[in-house]
């Protein structure tokens, strides 16, 4: 059959949104039209591309096979666009970054703002969600991760190390017994993750601190550090977040410290796209500098 790029574009939108309505919003066309386009494509191919259920549209085996080829076509089209636009000018178009909310709240906004200032035609989106992202489904163009993935056709680059410490607001410390050693934590209100919602083992901070019970729990780093800021209790916080909250101070800094790393993860095929390469290089450089700057303030 004579398959057109526009057909593949509609297919990719449905595969990534897992719904006709979501694809319609991305493509800016009516969901019913999206449905007709997919039905026609399935008829032309002689195979169902999606398994449809109340939960949405999931790729069938045939859909999975087409996805691989469709992504390659998409990358080729983007590559042609880059060549036609030229490489000497500023970055343009939309780039979406997936990131854990610690990085997304306290590091990436100022990093991406600096990059955007130098590239006025660039549109940057930060998706801040406490979960893993699928680059294959193009939920994001690149992902900042706290663990390097071990499977998939991915390109992984270490960005930088960062540090975490136990911390509390001075108002909480004034109202409670002094904390001079780790055993003194018992009896204090602790702030941390909801245990069964920890999506990466690198985030299980309280286990390493020897804390068995968390009194105030959230799957969001931003919520946790705001609890600490309000004097709600003691939490393990990113050093780079501390300068944003007056009155929050490290405790037991010589006794307990964690080192973690950020990694930039991209689909391996995207290494051929100069626009994403240039953005990734700027993101890594600026993130390293920003983490170092903020940690030096604590």
From TrEMBL:
Residues 3-60 form the HTH lysR-type domain. It comes from the Bacteria. Keywords: DNA-binding, Transcription, Transcription regulation. Gene3D superfamilies: 3.40.190.290, Winged helix-like DNA-binding domain superfamily/Winged helix DNA-binding domain. GO terms for biological process: DNA-templated transcription. PROSITE patterns: HTH_LYSR. This is Transcriptional regulator, LysR family. It comes from Roseovarius pacificus. The lineage of its organism: Bacteria, Pseudomonadati, Pseudomonadota, Alphaproteobacteria, Rhodobacterales.
